[in-house]
Amino acid sequence: MAATRNVMRAVRVFEFGGPEVLKLQSDVLIPVPKENQVLIQVHACGVNPVETYIRSGNYARKPALPYTPGSDVAGVIECVGEHVTAFKKGDRVFTTGTISGGYADYAVAAANRVFPLSDKLDFRQGAAIGIPYFTAYRALFQKGRAKAGESVLVHGASGGVGIATCQIARACGLKVLGTAGTEEGMNIVLRNGAHQAFNHREANYIDKVKEHTGMEGVDIIIEMLSNVNLATDLQLLSYGGRVMVVGSRGPIEINPRDTMSKESSIIGVSLFLETEEERHECATALLDGIEAGWLKPIVGSEYPLEKVVKAHEDIIHSSGARGKMVLVP
């Protein structure tokens, strides 16, 4: 690290609340990596819906205030702490978690949450891997027990987790259906592994899905907005089908009988609960996907750190996702 510079820009949250509580400061001390940690110069950081829930204070996990949001960074190793042998200064990397927060010029991360970034991907794509792809893999295989030949319906398939799910499911031999809210979103979904796309803003789109799947129904539904879709999801499932709850923004009323008639399951997915072993399994599969060429993150909107408030507004209220949202310091 240059001796002349020991401060950086970082977004700080001093109180929970709306997007306006995100404050960009330019005099934050650059963190120093401890044992088994690395310091990364951040070239891009993914923005995930979960970060807006945490910031609002309405999430199960509340970080100690003040804090810097952001877990998925891509960049270059600046320096490493003691006992780190897997990385060295200058290595291109991406993370699935940070200790100091990723909405900043530099971030400290535990070495076991850092992975080499292939030259096949740029930094913005690297910042789009962490939460989206690890969540998609966990939902499909570790929790959803997906098998080649089964069908999967991905709700909100044009967003970060949605595109990741389509790419992984297609590569692993599933029949992939996806929904999006715009024509452009539907085209993105089809280009990234879906066999069929539906517009979830059309009043009768559920009927179209039913028509497409016939009497069999769908084996797995990856659900980003459970508070809107869960009741109808249960009617779309096959016998023994399962809804994977990846996202929800509130309560919903369902009829439990809809699960009894098909012996279907509703399964919650939380990446925060993954074990070290599960993370390793997931990372191995995804790094193979990058090498094989089917794992190619699609980057959507890009924002400088100065526009972080707008980014948090747009990820919740945009007309339709078109790839992964990233901050570019």
Rounded average pLDDT: 95
- Strand residue percentage: 25-35%
Report the order of strands and helices: EEEHEEEEHHEHEHEHEHEHEHEHE
Largest sheet: 7 strands, mixed
The appropriate CATH architecture of the largest domain is: Alpha-Beta Complex
Number of domains: 2
How far apart are the termini?
18 Å
Tally of strands: 15
Radius of gyration: 20 Å
**Name of the level-1 CATH class of the largest domain:** Alpha Beta
- CATH H-tier superfamily of the largest domain: Medium-chain alcohol dehydrogenases, catalytic domain
Going by helix content, strand content and strand pairing, the class is alpha/beta
CATH topology of the largest domain: Quinone Oxidoreductase, Chain A, domain 1
User: Unreliable runs, pLDDT <50, ≥5 residues?
Assistant: none
Helix content: 25-40%
Helix count equals: 10
Morphology: globular
